[in-house]
Amino acid sequence: MSKIVWITGASSGIGEALVYRYFNAGDKLIISARNRDELFRVKGNCKNSFNVHVLAFDLSETGILAQKAEAALKIFGKIDLLINSGGVSQRGLALETELKTEQQIMDTNFWGTVILSKAVLPSMINNGGGQIVVVSSLVGKFGTKLRSAYAASKHALHGYFDSLRSEVYDKNIDITIICPGFVKTNVTYNALKGDGNPLNIMGDAHENAMTPAECAKQIVQAVKNKKEEAYIGGKEIKAVWLKRFFPKIFSKKVRTAKAN
Fold first, then answer.
1. Domain count, the chain
2. pTM across the whole model
3. For residue 27, what are the domain limits?
4. Quick one: 69 exposed, middle or buried, by C-beta within 10 A (0-12, 13-18, 19+)?
5. Looking at residues 119-129, what average pLDDT do you find?
């Protein structure tokens, strides 16, 4: 049975790859991101795309998000699956990052996801259930150099949605947190420097990483299995367990690790 799926961050990378996965599965889609032209490019890649609706907006503009969620709900009458894939990364030392840049990262990654999720949740409950997916990061489980605000925003997502899951478990609402490692996207290229400008450099680890299509394949399976949390990537996933069981060793390694 087809679902109504709303995907943010759908104009590139993991979000775009998820659009194709769910479209090819026969689902109806609402796709969102800042860049309207890129969203229509993605829509154009879907044959007979009358079931793909473009809803463009900036996640950092938190004051308009509840209104955008209301608009999304009116498109097909409901939303079965919300995938919060939109976000922005960071490449800057904490002491050199301006507060406005840190606020922008928190607004985009944390508050944007929270506001949209809270806005669609009552409708999901009234319709008998639904699923909310949060694309976090392995950095949502530990911090690394040059990513203080980014790591904070992802850590906050885990705290919030773990708590929310315990509140809505009896309302047929499933919450899945996805933690990708390195994926070959423009995440490093678009990452914000301390002054808020994009880095415009592709990191080596991302250049040689898993493709968005493979990442999307694993995310779809994790969502289908209604996993509470899923780690996706290569050997970098081992850092989660190293941090948990050998924190001092992890700290020593992360100090000297290349941050790209």
1. 1
2. 0.95
3. 4-256
4. buried
5. 98
